Amino acid sequence: MIITIAARERLTTATFTAIAGLVLLTATTGTANLTGIAAALASAAGYSLTTLLNRKSQDPLTTALVGFTTGALLLAPFAALPTTWTGWLLIAYFGLVPTALAYTLFYAGLTTLKASTAAVIALLEPVVATAIGILAFHEHLTALALTGAAVLLLAVAAQARRH
After folding, report:
1. What is the pLDDT of residue 123?
2. Separation of alpha carbons 125 and 22, rounded Å
3. 3-state helix/strand/coil string of 35-104
4. What is the DSSP string of 102-160?
5. What is the distance between the alpha carbons of residues 104 and 37, in angstroms, rounded to a whole number?
6. pLDDT tens for each residue of 75-92
7. CA separation, residue 83 to residues 53, 72, 94 (Å)
8. In 10 A of CB 13, how many CB atoms?
9. Could you give the maximum distance between any two Cα atoms of the chain, in Å?
10. Which of 27, 57, 60, 68 has the CB geometry, 3.0–4.6 Å to 108, for a possible disulfide?
C-alpha cells in the first residue's frame, strides 16, 4: 500500500485483499516481537523505496548492479568472511541468483507494469516461501494461514488480470 500511495496510483480491491491475505498468512498466536516488527517495517520501507526509485529505470541490469554493489560494500564490515570454497560459492549464489537476478527481473517488470501491480504480484514470495516450508521442512499451517494464502493468491490473480 505504501507503494500505491507514494506512486499516486489508485488503491484497488486487489491491493486491500492482498494485504488482508498477507496479514492472515503471517498472523501468529504467540506474542509479538517488537524488534521483529520494527525490522519488518524497515524492510517494507526499503522495498517500497527501491520499487519507487527504480520503476522508470531504462537499464534494470545496471540499476541492480549498482544497488547491490553498494549494499554489499556497506554490509561488508559486518560480515564474517567464509573460510571455505563452499562458503564462497554460497555467497556468490545467494548474491547473484535470488538477489541480483531476481531484482533485475523485478526492475525490468517495473518498466511495463504499474508499481502497485508489481508490488502485489511480488506478494507471491511469502506464499512460495510458505509452500517451501510445508514441502521441505514439513511445517504445518493453521486454517487461518491457509485462508490467508488462498486470499493472497486470489488477489494476485485479480491484480494480474487487470493488466
Report:
1. 87
2. 11
3. HHHHHHHHHHHHHHHHHHHHCCCCCHHHHHHHHHHHHHHHHHHHCCCCCCHHHHHHHHHHHHHHHHHHHH
4. HHHHHHHHHTTS-HHHHHHHTTHHHHHHHHHHHHHH-----HHHHHHHHHHHHHHHHHH
5. 28
6. 777 777 777 889 888 888
7. 36, 18, 17
8. 11
9. 50
10. 60
Tell me the pLDDT of the chain averaged across its residues.
Answer: 84
Q: Which of 19-33, 76-90, 96-110 has the highest mean pLDDT?
A: 96-110
pLDDT digits (tens, 9 = 90+) for 43-57: 888 888 888 887 877
Q: Which residues of 61-91 are buried (b: 16+ CB within 10 A; e: fewer)?
A: eebbeebbeeeeeeeeeeeeeeeeeeeeeee
| Phi and psi based region of residue 3 (left: phi greater than 0; alpha: psi -120 to 50; beta: remaining) | alpha
Contact 110, 51 (CB under 8 A): yes
**CB 31 within 8 Å of CB 76:** no
Q: Average pLDDT for residues 16-33, to the nearest whole number?
A: 82
Distance CA 100, CA 60 (A): 10
Residue 156 has pLDDT above 80, yes or no: yes
Give the side-chain half-sphere CA count within 13 A for 1: 13
pLDDT at site 29: 59
